[in-house]
Amino acid sequence: MQGKLFYGGINIKKLYLVIVFFVLILSGCDSNSNTDELQNPKYRNPYETPVNITETEAEKIAFDQAYLDKLDSPVIPKNWKTEIRSVYSLKYDRDVLVYAVYLKTAELPPEETMFNQVYYISTDNGEIIESNH
Question: DSSP assignment of 8-77, as one string?
C-alpha cells in the first residue's frame, strides 16, 4: 500500500523531496555566498593604496632611473607636472596608484609642450611600475 496521501494524490516523500530541492537551490542564491570572490578575486581599488612617498621622492627615483637608462640631461618640463594617477601594473596584474613623472631630455627641441619619457612610481613603496600605457 502507498504512503499517506495529501491533497491531489501527492505523498509525503515527494513533498519532502520537493522542499529539500528548493532549499538547496535557494541556499545557492544566498547573497552572502562566495560567488563574488570567485568572479572578482581580491579586487583592490587603486585609490585605496596608501601614499607613503612624497612627490619629491618620486621625482628623485625617476631621475635616478633616468640616469640608469642613460637619458641625456633629463628635466621635468614646465607644462608637465608630476601627478598622481592610476595605471595598470603588468607585475601586479591590477591597477595601482602611482606618481606619473614626465621627463624631457636634450634629444627633444626646446618647446615645452613635449616630453619623451614617463616613469610611473608607486605611491606605496616607490617601485617603478611597468605599465602598458
Answer: GG-BHHHHHHHHHHHHHHHHHT-TTSTHHHHHSTT---GGGS---S-HHHHHHHHHHHHHHTT-SS-B--
